[in-house]
Design brief:
The structure holds two protein chains of two kinds. Chain A is of the alpha+beta class. Chain A has 16 helices and 27 strands. In chain A, helix 14 packs antiparallel against helix 15. Chain B has seven helices and no strands. In chain B, helix 2 packs antiparallel against helix 3, helix 4 packs parallel to helix 6 and helix 4 runs antiparallel to helix 7. Chains A and B meet through helix 9, strand 19, strand 22 and helix 12 of A and helix 2, helix 3 and helix 7 of B.
Chain lengths: 623, 177
C-alpha cells in the first residue's frame, strides 16, 4: 500500500492527489450516491440517468441478486424474497418490530438482530443493506473511474448506537471505508448552508420514508453547530401510504388480502400520494388476484383529512427540539425541507404555519442529504480546498446512562450533548465485601431501565473487599465523532479496569426510541410513582442487609425476647419488600427501624467503648 | 498544534477569568474558535495518533464548554475548584422561608397539572424562571466575593428550583400532546 502524504492542516492536497470520496444517503425507500467534482457536489446517476436507487433487494433463484428498480419490478410477484424498507430492521430484534404479521417475510429470530429467510438462505438486515451499498459503490467506481478512498454514510439523527453500528458494519461488508457516519438533517444543513452562504439559526425538517428528524442548527462563520435534535422514528412517508392503503380497503370493502394483493395496493397507495403533490385528485385502479376490482378517486381534501394526525405528530418533536435549544419558532431564520415526503402540500403548509415563514425548497429534498454527505466525505478524505474552512459540531440524540440499584437509570451523558464527548461518573458498592460490579449501559430518556434500550452489559471484577459504599468505581462514557459509544470502568483504589466497545447485538429500534421518548412525557406521573416505589424497595433492601449484618456481629447484645421482636419485624419487611404497596414497605421499614433502635444504640456504645479501650492501650504502650 | 494539558482547569482552557461572572457570548465564540482548531475533522488526513489526540482535545473542549456555559454547572465547578464541598447529596438543610415558598409553588403546579390548566403552568413556569434568574445574580455576587458557604446554599436551592422548572416543562409537554 502506498503511503499517504501528509500536509499541514488547512492546506489543500495537490490536484493530482485528489482522492475519490463519496457520500451515501442510505434511505428507507431510496438511496443515492454523490461526490464532489471540480468543487461541486453532484449526485451520480445510473447508466440510464436515474439518480435514485430504490432501497429494494431481491434474492432470486440461482444466486442472482437484484437491487433497485429491477427488484422493485418484482416486489408484488415475489414479496417474500424482495426486501423493502430494510432500514427499519437495522439493529433490531424480532420483538422490536411492529406489525410483523402483516409483512410477507419469513423472519428468523436471532440474537440481537432479526434475520430473513430467502431462497438464498438466511440474510441479516446488515447484509441486505450491504447489497444496496455495494450497488452504489459500483456505480461510483464506474463513474469516477477508480478505487474509492472512503465514504460518508448518513443515518437518521435519531438512530441509536446499535443502529449506527449496524450501518457501519453494512458499509464495511460492502467494501467501503467509512470516513464518518453523518446525521441526515446535518448533512442537509451542510449542503444548504454552503450553497447559500447561510448565517443564523436554521431548522431542518426531515421527513423520510420511515423516519422523522428535526434538527436545530446555528450557522455562523463556517461552523455548523447542532443545538438540538429530535424526532419520531415511527413516522415517515410509509405511514401516509398506509393510511391511503387502509382507506382503499375500507372504501372498496375488500376481503382479507393475500401478500401479493397487499403489496400491489401498497404500491397503488404510494402512487396516488405522489400524484396528489401536483394534482387535485388521483385515480386508484387495481385488479386483485381474487377477481375483485378497485376503482377509486382520492381527492386532496380526503387525503389531507386521513393524514391530518400524522402531520400533527411531527410538531411535537419539533416543539421539544426548540425547547431543548432554548428557542421559540420566531427565532428561526429559515426551515430547510428534506426527504421526499416533504413534497406533500399539507406538510409544507403545516411547517409554514408553525414557524411563520415559508419553508426553503431550493434544493431537491431527495438529493440534499447525499450532496451534504459528499461534501463532508471530500473534506474528510483530505481534499480540503482553500476557503473550504467549515466545521461541523453534532450532538447525540438520546441520553446514555447506567442502571443503578432498583432498576433506575443514572444519566451519564444527556441528550443533545456535542460530540465527541466523555463523561465520568463515580459509583460505589451496595454490599459489604462486594468484589464485582455488573454494569448495564442503556439509552433513552425514561427513569426506569425497563423503559430504556439496553445497549450492553459488562462486569468489573477484582474490586478489593470493602464495606458497602467505600469503593470508588469511576465509569467513563466516551462518544466519538460517529456518535458511537465505548465505556470504561475503573476501581480507583485497586486500579482494576474493564472496557467495552458497545456492539450492535442489542438493536434499539426506531419505533421504540420514539415511543420511549413519547412515553417519558405521557407517563411522567406514572414514572414518578414507580420511581418512588423502586426507591423504597432499594432502601428497604439496604435496611434488611444492614440489620442482618448487625445481627451476625452482635446478636449477643439482644435478649431472647428482643431478638424475637427484631426477627419478626425483619420477616414482615421481607414479606412486603417485592410487592408494589409502597405504604406497606414504608410501614414495615418504620417498624424495623424502631424495633432495632435500641440494638443500634447498644452497638454504637460498644464500638465507642472498644475505640476508647484501644486508645487506652495505645496510650499505655506509649508510657 | 498547541500542547494539551489534561489537568488544566476549564477557565484556563478558554483563558477566561476564574469567576462566576462570565460573558457567555464571548465564551461561545472562543469555543467555536478553539474547536475549529482542534476538532478531529480538521485533522482527518493526519496520522491515527494525531487524530486520537485531536479527539481527546475536542472532547475536553466540549466538556469544558458544557460546564462553563451553564451557570449552575459553572458555580458547582467553581466551588469544586476552590475545594469547597457543597455536600449536595447529604446537606439538605435550607432556609424555612425558601422551603415554604417551594412547597406552595409545588402545590400550585400539582393543582394546575391535575386541572389540565396549561395557562396556569405557563404562568408558574415564567414566575419560577424569573425567580431563578434573580437567584443567579445573587449567586454570582456571592461567589465572586468569595462567600463560598452562601454560594453553596444558593447552588443547592437552585438545583431544587431548576428541577421543578424542568418538571413544569414536562407537564406542559404532556398537556400539549
Amino acid at each position: 500500500m502506498a503511503l499517504l502524504q501528509i500536509s499541514e492542516p488547512g492546506e489543500s492536497a495537490a490536484p493530482h492527489e485528489h482522492r475519490l470520496a463519496i457520500g451515501i444517503d442510505l434511505g428507507t425507500t431510496n438511496s443515492l450516491v454523490a461526490t464532489v467534482r471540480s468543487g461541486m457536489s453532484v449526485v451520480l446517476n445510473d447508466e440510464l440517468g436515474r439518480p435514485l436507487l430504490p432501497s429494494i433487494v431481491r434474492y432470486a433463484e440461482a444466486g442472482k441478486v437484484e437491487v433497485g428498480y429491477d427488484a422493485q419490478a418484482q416486489q408484488a410477484a415475489d414479496p417474500r424474497n424482495t426486501i423493502v424498507s430494510v432500514k427499519r430492521f437495522m439493529g433490531r430484534g424480532l420483538k422490536d418490530i411492529e406489525h410483523i404479521e402483516t409483512m410477507p417475510y419469513d423472519f428468523v429470530d436471532a440474537e440481537g438482530m432479526v434475520k430473513l429467510n430467502t431462497v438464498q438462505g438466511v440474510k441479516s438486515p446488515v447484509e441486505v443493506s450491504a447489497d444496496v451499498l455495494r450497488a452504489l459503490r459500483e456505480r461510483a467506481e464506474l463513474s469516477l473511474g477508480g478505487a474509492l478512498t472512503g465514504a460518508v454514510i448518513t443515518v437518521p439523527a435519531y438512530f441509536d448506537d446499535a443502529q449506527r453500528q449496524a450501518t457501519k458494519d453494512a458499509a464495511r461488508l460492502a467494501g467501503l471505508n467509512v470516513l464518518r457516519l453523518l446525521n441526515e438533517p446535518t448533512a442537509a444543513a451542510i449542503a444548504y448552508g454552503l450553497d447559500n452562504a447561510a448565517e443564523g439559526i436554521y431548522a431542518v425538517y426531515d421527513l423520510g420514508g420511515g423516519t422523522f428528524d428535526i434538527s436545530i442548527l446555528k450557522l455562523s462563520k463556517g461552523v455548523f453547530q447542532v443545538l438540538a435534535t429530535g424526532g419520531d422514528s415511527a413516522l415517515g412517508g410509509d405511514d401516509f401510504d398506509h393510511r391511503v392503503f387502509c382507506w382503499i380497503i375500507e372504501q372498496a370493502k375488500l376481503s382479507p388480502l393475500s401478500h401479493q394483493d397487499a403489496r400491489l395496493l401498497q404500491i397503488r397507495a404510494r402512487e396516488a400520494k405522489e400524484y396528489l403533490t401536483s394534482h387535485g385528485e388521483a385515480p386508484i385502479v387495481a385488479r386483485l388476484s381474487t377477481g375483485e376490482f378497485v376503482d377509486l378517486k382520492l381527492t386532496t381534501a380526503i387525503f389531507t383529512e386521513i393524514t391530518h394526525t400524522l402531520v400533527h405528530k411531527t410538531l411535537g418533536p419539533t416543539r421539544k427540539a426548540l425547547r431543548d435549544a432554548g428557542l421559540s419558532p420566531d427565532e428561526i431564520t429559515g426551515v430547510v425541507m428534506v426527504g421526499g415526503a416533504t413534497r406533500m402540500p399539507q406538510i409544507q403548509k403545516a411547517v409554514e404555519d408553525f414557524f411563520g415563514c415559508e419553508p426553503l425548497n431550493n434544493l431537491d429534498p431527495d438529493k440534499v442529504v447525499a450532496l451534504g454527505a459528499a461534501t463532508q466525505a471530500n473534506l474528510l478524505a483530505g481534499n480540503r480546498a482553500a476557503g473550504d474552512d467549515w466545521l461541523l459540531l453534532d450532538v447525540i440524540p438520546l441520553s446514555l446512562g447506567l442502571e443503578t440499584m432498583g432498576g433506575l437509570v443514572e444519566k451519564v451523558i444527556p441528550r443533545n450533548s456535542t460530540i465527541p464527548i466523555a463523561r465520568a461518573q463515580d459509583f460505589t458498592t451496595f454490599k459489604d465485601g462486594q468484589t464485582a460490579m455488573a454494569l448495564h449501559v442503556v439509552q433513552g430518556e425514561r427513569e426506569l431501565v425497563s423503559d430504556c434500550r439496553s445497549l450492553a452489559r459488562f462486569e468489573l471484577r477484582g474490586i478489593p473487599p470493602m464495606v458497602a459504599g467505600a469503593a470508588r468505581i469511576r465509569v467513563t462514557f466516551q462518544v466519538d465523532a460517529d456518535g458511537l459509544l465505548s465505556v470504561n470502568a475503573r476501581e480507583q483504589i485497586s486500579g482494576h479496569e474493564a472496557h467495552i466497545e458497545v456492539k450492535p447485538s442489542y438493536g434499539l429500534n426506531d419505533d421504540e426510541i420514539a415511543a420511549m421518548l413519547k412515553d417519558s412525557f405521557t407517563h411522567a406521573s406514572e414514572d414518578a410513582f414507580r420511581r418512588a416505589l423502586r426507591e423504597a424497595q432499594v432502601e428497604a433492601q439496604r435496611l434488611v442487609e444492614a440489620v442482618l449484618s448487625a445481627l451476625q456481629e452482635d446478636a449477643q447484645l439482644l435478649s431472647r425476647l428482643e431478638r424475637a421482636h427484631v426477627d419478626n419485624c425483619l420477616a414482615k419487611l421481607q414479606g412486603v419488600l417485592l410487592g408494589d404497596d409502597r405504604r406497606a414497605i414504608d410501614a414495615a421499614m418504620d417498624a424495623l427501624s424502631k424495633g432495632t433502635a435500641e440494638f443500634a444504640a447498644r452497638r454504637m456504645n460498644q464500638s465507642v467503648q472498644r475505640a476508647l479501650a484501644g486508645k487506652k492501650i495505645e496510650e499505655m504502650d506509649q508510657l | 498544534m498547541t500542547v494539551f494539558d489534561p489537568h488544566q482547569d476549564f477557565f484556563a482552557l478558554f483563558d477566561v477569568p476564574r469567576r462566576q461572572g462570565l460573558d457567555v457570548d464571548r465564551l461561545e465564540s472562543l469555543y467555536r474558535d478553539i474547536q475549529a482548531k482542534v476538532h478531529p475533522d480538521k485533522h482527518a488526513h493526519l496520522s491515527d495518533t494525531e487524530q486520537r489526540m485531536a479527539m481527546q482535545m475536542a472532547t475536553r473542549v466540549n466538556e469544558a464548554y458544557l460546564t462553563l456555559k451553564d451557570p449552575l454547572k459553572r458555580a458547582r465547578y467553581l466551588l469544586e475548584l476552590s475545594g469547597h464541598d457543597v455536600r449536595l447529596e447529604t446537606n439538605t438543610a435550607m432556609p424555612v422561608e425558601f422551603l415554604m415558598a417551594q412547597m406552595e409553588l409545588r402545590e400550585a403546579v400539582a393543582d394546575a397539572k391535575d386541572g389540565g390548566d396549561i395557562d396556569a403552568l405557563d404562568a408558574l413556569h415564567r414566575r419560577l424562571k424569573k425567580e431563578i434568574r434573580a437567584e443567579y445574580v445573587t449567586l454570582q455576587t456571592a461567589l465572586d466575593a468569595g462567600n463560598h458557604a452562601r454560594a453553596g446554599e444558593l447552588v443547592r436551592q437552585l438545583m431544587f428550583q431548576e428541577k421543578l422548572l424542568h418538571e413544569i416543562g414536562d407537564a406542559m409537554e404532556v398537556l400539549e400532546t
